[in-house]
UniProtKB/TrEMBL annotation:
Keywords: Methyltransferase, Transferase
Domain of life of the organism encoding this protein: Bacteria
GO biological process, alphabetically ordered: methylation
Organism per entry: Streptomyces kurssanovii
Keyword Transferase in record: yes
Protein name per UniProt: Methyltransferase domain-containing protein
InterPro entries for this protein: SAM-dependent_MTases_sf (IPR029063)
Amino acid sequence: MAHSASFGSNAHSAHEHHYGEHVFRPQDEGEGDRVDLGALAYDATTMARLRELGVGPGWRCLDVGAGTGTVARALLREAGAAEVVAVDRDVRFLAAEPTAGLIAREADITSDGFAPGHFDLVHARFVLMHLPDPGRMIARLAAMLAPGGVLVLSDAVDLTTRDAPDSSFTSTVRAMWQGLRDTIGTDVAWVPNCPHMLRTAGLESVAAEIHVPPLVSGSPISRFWAETWQRARPAMTATGLVDDAVIDDAVRCLDSPGFCGLSPGMLTAWGRRP
């Protein structure tokens, strides 16, 4: 998916390529706009959960895979956080809008040298699904919490397309996941197990929720998927599951008032360090 998140290692050459380099490139025209469509679809849900967990004035936060920085800036402007360290593989979007309290850091979180300190909040959205060994990454991020700090992780969960009746939409979503897995290592199969992985990492008060934004014609999430499929089209057609005509029909479905498909959702899980 590639969305607010975006860095790490390519599945086939961990030390030679950044995550998404062959599919979602920050330097490509319109990539920032595509990421922002995802933010429009999910930021309100993310911020509501973070506020419910107590994020507020004085908190020191780490936003991993910060993308265009919408969550990082909302933590400062809406929640009143004292400081947000916003990390991504490419910080051009973060640097484009300097914000008081926002520290942009270009880094690879899979690197052994990544040790930014300890935080009251560590947040990552649509990041771990693209990286190898999510259990190891969860343990590393949990270790970056100060005592009493909270780790909040959001990744994609697909609730319907594996068993749903065949259609251009479901075939296209299946091809997207397979194509991204084949090219950049994306894997969402483990995501429902995230709460257990948080407990294994030693966190307490673990819980989770799922948000599925409605696929309404012209909505940010519908436009996000259309743009994502356009960028991932070569990887998707290479799976043999779809051709260009099927993808084009799926895009038309997203813009049809009568369409009733269910979008992949966002599972958010959280836990506190004792």
